[in-house]
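Dear Dr. H.,

I hope your travels went smoothly. While you were away I took the liberty of generating a structure for the chain from your last submission, since the lab meeting agenda had it listed for discussion. I wanted you to have the full record in hand beforehand rather than looking at slides cold. The sequence, exactly as received, is reproduced here:
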Amino acid sequence: MWPTDRWLNVELKAGGPAVALKTVALLAGRPKVILSSFDPRLLLAARAAGSAYEHALLLAAQSPPFLHVAGAQAFGCGAVHLDHRLTTAATVARYHAQGLVVGVWTVNSLLRKQEVAAWGVDRIITDCP
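The corresponding predicted structure, in token form, is as follows:
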């Protein structure tokens, strides 16, 4: 079991509202959880299932353009998690100006971690902590 004093990022990938409901039920009472997904409908389903956790919209190059513009807030997310290859100082500033927490994924190079940290990202998702 993942320690409860560490953040747990749970990605909702598929399965529709039933999986979102089951995930919220399984996590009930656990602190420090972020629910993230490329599919904002799954995040809406989790919210409807009673999720009070932070929700993060995952964004990649192939994500629909409207999600890059106003998708996170339109779907009740307080954060965006970006493919680090799409991330620049300007994108971090733009999302921060919208009041969003900015995370980047999957950053495994120390040099890249330092670069995105200097731009003010709020969280770095990595395979190599």
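Two observations you may find useful: The mean pLDDT is 95. The CA atoms of residues 5 and 67 lie 32 Å apart.

With kind regards,
E. W.
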